[in-house]
Amino acid sequence: MSETTSTKGIWKVITASSLGTLIEWYDFYIFGSLAVVISTKFFPSDNPTAAFLSTLATFAAGFVVRPFGALFFGRLGDIIGRKYTFMVTLLLMGGATFLIGCIPSYESIGFWAPLAVLILRLLQGLALGGEYGGAATYVAEHSPANQRGYWTSWIQTMATFGLFISLMVILGTRAILSPEEFDAWGWRVPFWISIIMVVVSYVIRRKMHESPVFAKAKAEGKTTTNPLKESFGNKLNLKFVLLALFGAAMGQGVVWYTGQFYAMSFLKTVMFVESSQVDALLGIALLLATPFFIFFGWLSDKLGRKPIMMLGMLLAILLYRPIYDKMYKTTDIVNKTEIAANAKNEVILKEVKEGKMDSVYTANKEFTDGTKWTQIKSVHLENGQPVLVDGKAKADTKTVVTINNDDRWMLIFLVFIQVIFVTMVYGPIAAFLVEMFPVKIRYTSMSLPYHVGNGIFGGLLPAISTYFVTTAKDDGDPQFYLQGLWYPIVIASISFLIGMVYLKYKNNVEHD
Question: Which of 125, 180, 321, 407 could form a disulfide with 403 if both were Cys (CB 3.0 to 4.6 A apart)?
Answer without folding.
Answer: 407
